[in-house]
UniProtKB/TrEMBL annotation, chains A, B:
Pfam families, alphabetized: Sacchrp_dh_C (PF16653), Sacchrp_dh_NADP (PF03435)
Protein name: Saccharopine dehydrogenase family protein
Entries under InterPro entries matching the protein: NAD(P)-bd_dom_sf (IPR036291), Sacchrp_dh-like_C (IPR032095), Sacchrp_dh_NADP-bd (IPR005097)
Gene3D superfamilies: Dihydrodipicolinate Reductase, domain 2, NAD(P)-binding Rossmann-like Domain
Location of the Saccharopine dehydrogenase-like C-terminal domain: 144-390
Occurrences of domain Saccharopine dehydrogenase NADP binding (ranges): 3-139
UniProt-listed SUPFAM superfamilies: NAD(P)-binding Rossmann-fold domains (SSF51735)
Organism: Angustibacter luteus
């Protein structure tokens, strides 16, 4: 396996640090728009299989050229989701397989953005699924932690824990704090704005996909391992678009434990138009306000030393157990920042995102997973993934049985 | 009188619209960095005394050259306060008198920003006061509505209403709304951020000037003419620096009726570093985050058609009346947006700011006011100003007697 990693920001850098501990690949080309950043990652991992390159992720041709030059078998996309399509198309043109951790972007419904879907997450990618299938090539989409591990959990729950599923509800929360900053998101603010200010999408068996207003259906979810209760709200996320394509459930949701302060910041950015990606003229230059917001905040990848706490990704599932009784479980994966910093020099949120595509690539390298077309993680057997994550990468997952609440 | 108006944004444009109704000047050169903007103002006023020019307000030389070319007697500064010093210096070098509506900027105290003053508003201008005096030239500083009319009220109160003043407290509030915008400040957001996020300054006779944390000492002030109660907080403002130089009072304060939503927006901008004027690198360009915030919001000068309500500027004075009894008054000036739009095509906040320097220039032209050095409005007799504002410009002011509260 010869991998081209496009993007060596926080997640890309952690991807390289995790992958080099494993023997499953022959070459890893770490490419970034900023060559110096790629070189920093290469220097940090110090592995003869890894080399640095420059790439323009906004250009499919640039991705294709680089993939061909290094006879790449798999293109690993680790850049902002606005570059999904050029990297996805560049990989296909180079005859490589492809993985990403976020899917092509959505466009709200022009008239009823808070009720009906417009262009949905991943629509552009699924539109060409038959081309990938015909070419015998695999695009494994949404293969980070959320989407990614959450989708693996969903497949596991459907195969092994439930005879019938009412809700597949991804629930994400943390108790992270960052010393020395009044406000410092632990993940890309660009992506967080995109996720949180777009109309959230929900899937119901009898309605299909539909949208709501941002921050809808607030609920307090009690996260495990000492994190405790966090206020969660509906957020647009790939799981809701992926799970119903392969799994049976009555309802699929995604709720993010944003907390009150973060919601207030996002609402204010929106109110002032600072969430916009449309360039505005400032003096003699044109800039996207959202890029300026990102530039004003510290790089989340560099905050690991000042962070404390744990982050939890997981899937809350309700329905009927294999024994015919009502069942409710939370399948989850917690990473402690102290551990990921000490063990990998990566902060917990980016480490947790990056480990999952490494596991998936190892399963593809060994043949434990195989397929063609545009597929989500739930299209593959969950058991080898969860076993390898725990045994090969030292990162266990948990299952919490909960008392089923009253039927909604 | 030959006037060079530097800046034809909201206030500059309104200044020209107001001035052309009066005969006191021979020429008005409307200058802007953007010549087209100056030309729009000139076209709107349609007066042979008025012509357009291009100027770079960040360059004293540019101001001097233009002032000399038109044999200007008075330079009227109507640009953002960051350009006060070059315009002020450019006027002096050209041998012209000078007026502004905001003073040179402050710098917080490096160690105790919320207790001690650093560089104060106007310090740079007062530092060269003897040069202006020696040259027999006048710099009339802070001659808008606040500072400006508020300072005229203070002089009036000291001369005619009180034998001893406890507090001179400028209080500013409105009930303005803007149709079609979730958030649309009615005044320059650049200046509002500068005013509101700098540590507020307070003057007390036995302590001198000192600072507090932003948004300190919230109080609900009941504004007249149907505006009603608005939450006001301490804000850094020129009145506090000007009034104690010429008038006797135990305490001088400025409180702005920001309201809860606006305070929340300003706090969030600060938390994210978006209030900063220090350029950040975004892609290949450098921009100041605060300029980007301003670029994302609608130009307040263009909102007049969508605005409703009234704005009130005024001075709350407590102390001992001329009869020896405790007295408390609010001297105020209210402008209704419907009136200023219909009468002048200018929204009420910029109209209210712009009318005061026009009145002052007319008083200087007629000789009713004269002086040299760097002087605030309270250095001049208030009566001719208040009479001319009412009788010449059709804009009355009010006096509300209040029941004195318990001594603080």
């Amino acid at each position: 396996m010869r991998i081209l990693l496009v993007g060596s920001g926080g997640v890309g850098d952690a991807f390289a640090r995790i992958a080099v501990r494993r023997p499953f690949f022959e070459q890893l080309v770490v490419a970034d728009y900023d060559l110096a950043r790629a070189e920093r990652t290469v220097a940090a991992v110090d592995d003869p299989r890894v080399l640095a390159a420059q790439v323009d992720a906004s250009s499919a041709q640039s991705v294709t050229d680089l993939a061909r030059a290094h006879q790449v078998t798999h293109v690993m996309n680790a850049v902002d989701p606005r570059f999904v399509m050029p990297v996805f198309e560049g990989a296909f043109a180079a005859g490589a397989d492809y993985l990403d951790m976020a899917m092509s972007l959505s466009q709200p419904h022009p008239e009823h953005p808070h009720r009906q879907t417009g262009v949905m997450l991943g629509d552009e990618q699924f539109a060409v699924a038959t081309d990938w299938e015909a070419a015998g090539r695999l695009a494994l989409v949404g293969m980070g932690v959320e989407p990614g591990l959450s989708d693996v959990f969903a497949r596991y729950a459907c195969d092994h824990l439930f005879s019938q599923v009412d809700e597949l509800g991804t629930r994400d929360g943390s108790n992270l704090t960052v010393d020395g900053y009044e406000f410092a998101p632990s993940f890309s603010i660009w992506t967080t704005i995109e996720e949180c200010l777009n109309p959230p999408v929900v899937w119901e068996a009898d309605r299909g996909w539909f949208t709501t207003a941002p921050f809808s259906e607030p609920e307090v979810f009690d996260f495990p391992d000492g994190i405790g209760p966090v206020e969660c709200v509906n957020v647009e996320h790939e799981e809701v678009l992926l799970m119903p394509r392969w799994l049976d459930a009555k309802r699929v949701t995604f709720k993010y434990g944003l907390g009150e302060e973060f919601i207030d910041v996002l609402r204010t950015l929106h109110k002032l138009g600072l969430d916009s990606t449309e360039p505005v003229r400032v003096g003699g230059v044109q800039v996207s306000p959202r890029d300026v917001v990102a530039a004003c905040l510290p790089d989340p990848a560099g905050l690991g030393d000042r962070m404390h706490g744990k982050t939890c990704a997981g899937l809350w599932v309700t329905g009927t157990g294999t024994d015919g009784q009502p069942r409710e479980v939370y399948l989850y994966h917690v990473v402690d920042n102290d551990w990921s910093m000490q063990e990998y020099g990566a902060q917990c949120v980016v480490w947790q995102t990056a480990v999952n595509p490494v596991v998936a690539l190892e399963l593809l390298a060994t043949g434990a997973w195989s397929g063609s077309g545009v597929l989500g993680p739930e299209a593959f057997d969950a058991v080898p993934f969860l076993d390898l994550l725990r045994d090969g990468y030292g990162s266990p997952w948990g299952l919490r049985e909960q008392t089923p609440g009253p039927a909604s």
